[in-house]
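FORM 7B: Structural annotation worksheet

SECTION A. Query
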Amino acid sequence: MRWIAGFLAGCLLLAAALTRLAAADTSLSWESQFRFGLVGNANFTDGPKDLGNVRALDYRFRAVASLPAGSNFLLRAGVDFAQTRFDAPISAHVPDVLQTASVVVGVDVQIGEAWIFRLDLQPGFYSGHTSLRSEDFSVPITLGASYFVSADLQFIAGVSIDVNRKYPVLPGVGLRWKVAPDWVVNAILPNPRLEYSVTSAVLLYAGADIQVGTYRVDSDFGSARRDAKLNDAFVDFTQIRAGIGASWTLTPAATVELEAGLVPVYDLDYHRAEFRVRSDELPPYGGLNVKLKF
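SECTION B. Predicted structure
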């Protein structure tokens, strides 16, 4: 459809415009993330029935620019592209791919010295197949608030809204607490972890990577699996990774992270069709994450 092509073209134009602004306007800052991960064999079931082994790889590119708009406002805009590709038998009832193609639009508002409030909208396509259709369009919303007790202690609360999800509204709380000169409890979703600074450039950590999303599968997804109720179904994807990692600050603008561990929670819930598949094992995973700031 024309408007889908227009949306994707707009994403590219936005990225190009923000890049030029970042070069021309010293008040504009830019954060980019490149992520790649692999998950090993996991046996999937729908209860008592084995459905086969599933392997997956995922990658993501996210870039968001921030521009001050007055003393207490920060405007945010960017792009987010992500894919999770599965190697699975058709009996596993797992899509070949789950993908996101979206823009990020948001604002941060500071009230007083201690409070910061955030609103993020992420309009885009959330697809359980390789094409992008108007039916896949959605606008997830994130609301958050941060309270700074001191430079060493901050509290965070937020809520995620997605009308296509089984539970449309999900709250969350967290904190960041520097408990000692080299130790930080960084309990903020979606990556809560305990951090230890070996040097100013090397950081070790243990924690979790919580990956969730709601997607719409293809119109013949169920028919191909002899279950027509899954055609065009919404699926909630949940993967919680628990592991250890190391982070290297190569320059003030570039950080590289390597991590590995196990996946204790790994499932796909076609909630409106009342069908769910999940792993009954603890598959291994490994990941690479590159973060850039300008």
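SECTION C. Observations
Residues 114 and 148 are 5 Å apart (CA to CA). Residues 2-293 form a domain with the Porin fold (CATH 2.40.160.40).

SECTION D. Sign-off
Analyst initials: ____
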